[in-house]
Structure formats: C-alpha cells, structure tokens
Amino acid sequence: MLFSNADEELEKLKLIKQEIEEINTLELDKMFVGVEDIQRVFGCCKRRAQEFFKLPGLEIIKLGGDPYVNIWVLYEFTKQRIVLSEINK
Fold it and tell me: Residue 17 and residue 36: Cα distance in Å, rounded?
C-alpha cells in the first residue's frame, strides 16, 4: 500500500514536470493576445474585438496604447464566463 501511494505521487510529479516544460517552451509573443488576435479567433469585426477588452473583470495591459491580455488570464476569464452561463440557464 505504501508503494502504491508513492507510485501515484511520482506519476503526479511527472505530469507536473511535463506541464512546466510545455509552459517553458511557449514563445513570449504567444503569451499575449491583442485586438487582431481576438478578431481572428472569434471571427468578429475589429469593433467587437475592441469591446471585448472593455468587459468588466478582464485584466488587460496596455502597451503603446494597445490593449493586450495574457493567455492564462484569458483562459481563466472565459472559463468563469462559461461556468456562469451554465449556472444561469
């Protein structure tokens, strides 16, 4: 029984290591998305993409006057929105 738990913990650590290695291989220019990226991904017009960056609760940074959002922040934001929309059904 003791070995079983140790094996499980070792497997969890291997999975965490893999995730960290994947994160470390991300290129910096892919860590942030701007208006054009949102426009392309969602297939919307530029105005709608700009409005997206004004949604309450979305943490953005401005570089040169242009808004950007970190992909991990965007992931958490959209995940929360999906959960809230499911609850409100």
Answer: 33
Q: Can you give the pLDDT at residue 3?
A: 52
Question: How many Å separate Cα 85 from the centre of its chain?
Answer: 18
Quickly state the pLDDT bin for 45 (edges 50, 70, 90): very high
Q: Which residue has the tokens 């965490």?
A: 16
Residues 47-75: tens digit of each pLDDT: 999 999 999 989 999 988 999 999 989 98
Answer for the pair 35, 46: CB distance below 8 angstroms, yes or no: yes
Q: Taking Cα atoms as reference points, which of 19, 57, 56, 55 lies closest to residue 38? A: 55
Average pLDDT over the chain reads 84
